[in-house]
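Instructor's aside before we start: the two examples that follow are unrelated to each other. I chose them only because their records fit on one page, so don't look for a connection. First example below.
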Amino acid sequence: MDLKKGKMTAWQQWLERPDKSRVRNVFFQVHFWMGAAAGAYILLMSVSGSVIVYRNELSGNSFVEWVVRLHENLLMGMTGRFVNGIGAVCLTLLCLTGAVIWWPGTKHWRRSLTVDWSAHFARINWDLHSALGFWCFIFVMVWGISGIYFAFPQAFNTLLLLDPADRFTDQGLFWLSQLHFGRFGWFVEAIWMVLGLVPGLLAFTGVFICCRRVIYKKPSNPRSS
């Protein structure tokens, strides 16, 4: 605490009252509006991605092959692949901005890790968005980055500037691709199929938060109402 002015420093404010931080508010606005714009797309990719986890085992099934094309390029060829790349960039930015604005302060961070199922719907929705975002951050981040790689592989050639002998880059990108699909046996694929729905749940809960704020003029966080 700044004793002369009787005010918190920026760091103290971030730790104790992040809702009052201007920097956090900027990140929140980016996260809020980007999520509102990309919500339906993320839901589509989430559900279709979970469906095609077992694409190799179900090869030849016309419906699965259709969903594969939908997931890979939105049934629009290279144009759809480009759109997917932009969507993956949005998902990655949502992860990063979400990680910044998740912090609720030193007094409340523990309750942001769980869901109060006995609360009203708006509170449950907020808790789900917060808790899922925290516990599944790494998974969603990997899907976002790997999605960028699939759409814009040439951009990742810049990694060779750090690894000119290609000792790690090619292998790292291979594992990034494998992680996207969870291709490590049936058990991991089953986990990936379930976790693949998380971005969709985050999109759904996020859109509800958006509607609550924009349409009904209520606080995004029902705890503050």
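Example two begins here.
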Amino acid sequence: MELHSLKDSFDHVAKKRKVSYSKTHEVTDLIVQEINKAIKVMQSSTLEYKSELAELKKKLQEVSPLNQLEGVQKELNIALIKYPKALEKVFNPDISKAYRNIEFDSLIVNQIIASHFYRQGLFEVGDCFITEAQDAEAAVAMRSLFHELYQMLEAMKSRNLEPALKWAAANSNKLKENGSDLQLRIHHLQFVKILQKGSRDEALKYARTNFASFAGNHMAEIQKLMGCLLYSDRLHESPYAHLLSPTNWDTVTNELTRQFCNLLGQSYESPLSATIAAGIQGLPPLLKFMTVMAGKKHEWQSMKQLPVPVELDKEFQFHSVFVCPVTKEQSTDDNPPMLMSCGHVLCKQSINKMSKNGSKTFKCPYCPTDIDSTQCRQLIF
């Protein structure tokens, strides 16, 4: 991708600038050091300063600051000259020839934009946009929902887990259906937080109250947390010190956002962000293609498909249709794709048929794993 080469060019400029900066400081410090030495000698001597100044001049000539800086500065200048050329090559000022004149539903577009602002926590901006657009009222419903999410996230920034715990408890069954252990992970953070305060008895009481329902599937993790009780007064020096890492909070924050969006039927990433990011990747090859097509006088508007592939990264490759390998039929809302414990996927009706409506286990058609239909969970593409 051309953007990758542009990033490499930018990184090259940044590297040369760093080298130049470091070398300049090194030479400057050396000059200052020699001058300070000369001043110190002159202050302690009653003789004339000519000999000291001559010696200083000789040492500065040996340092040769201009010669030392000339090379690195020249390399930096070359990199700076090449970078704008790379920018001009990648960012064509006229991108209109790379898209078709397609009529968009302004209502849907405005809803997507407003929802994007709410996803980012920019509620005032979203409200202002809706007021000016005058036709994005459907996005207003998203405001209160994402406002709830950002209240939880803001609370977590100040290490307050109560809003997140309440939400997870209220949606416990749905989280279990999705195969998520988010509720336990939030309890995990709260347990460690209590233990950090040195209150072992309170932490044990919290564990007895909140961990019992998770023991069936997460006993090993709970046992590890119980081991922390032995080091309540020196947890940071214990074998469990990694549980204090701030990255644990970041991980749970991301999972909370993901599960919140999932329960809303929304994607984790903003559709607007994903569309723009994919467009940025696809634009350079399209512009190149259009340059060639213009020379051959082909009409872009009349083409039904691109004659050249436009490669996008994996995060922009979606599979909106799933065909069950058993029935050879497409999945539907009533017959969704289900992920089995072995990692393979079948449609729900196929699993029900093979398991006699959940009355027995069955073998996966792809591998010899015995499958329990109650452990299968729905996949959302």
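The mean pLDDT is 84.
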